[in-house]
Amino acid sequence: MEERRKSNRRELVSTIIVKRLDNPALNEQVEIDIVDVSKTGIGFSCGKALEIGAVYEAYLRIWTQEVLHAFLEIVRIEKKGNSYHYGAVFIGMPGAEASRIE
Description:
The chain is mainly β. It has 1 helix and 6 strands. It has one helix at about 95-100; strands at about 15-20, 30-35, 40-45, 55-60, 65-80, 85-90.
């Protein structure tokens, strides 16, 4: 498989809570399992169907136990059994936050 990410991937065992920004009625918090993360994006799985192109607010707990506030845009969705695997890019993440991930 050809690598399409701009930055190296890191594995991270954690969960984050996301909420939909553009529709407060859909402001349900959802736990997700992080598969991999880089300074430009994140791969994760969850049982809830999210929408491609939608932007979600996220609180990412990294291995140092710091919590990073981020915004994710869903760019890829793949259904696997009862779960979904997503690819998302970080929107407007400051360089200092991105370097903590790297």
